[in-house]
Specification:
The protein has three helices and three strands, in the order βααββα. By secondary structure, the protein is α+β, with helices and mostly antiparallel strands. The chain has one domain. A three-stranded antiparallel β-sheet has the order 1-3-2. Strand 2 and strand 3 form a beta hairpin. The relative contact order is 0.21.
Length: 67
């Protein structure tokens, strides 16, 4: 069975991995670089982003070797 949460990251997890500030992602949403309900989604006060969107906008996940 596939995990429906696989490939999803909180803004905190994403910014820690890519070495960014959370405000960078919030601004990317505000300016339309990251599309709400496609790349990101807000649940209460928590933002979630897809790993695919992070890799598209900020490069491969650091520490992941490409085969």
């Amino acid at each position: 069975m596939n995990n429906p949460f696989e490939g999803l990251l909180s803004f905190k997890e994403a910014t820690d991995l890519w070495g960014l500030n959370e405000s960078t992602l919030r601004k990317a949403v505000t300016y339309g670089k990251l599309k709400e309900n496609i790349d990101v989604k807000k649940f209460g006060k928590q933002w979630i982003i897809t790993q695919e969107a992070m890799e598209r906008e900020y490069g491969p996940m650091p520490g992941e070797d490409k085969k």
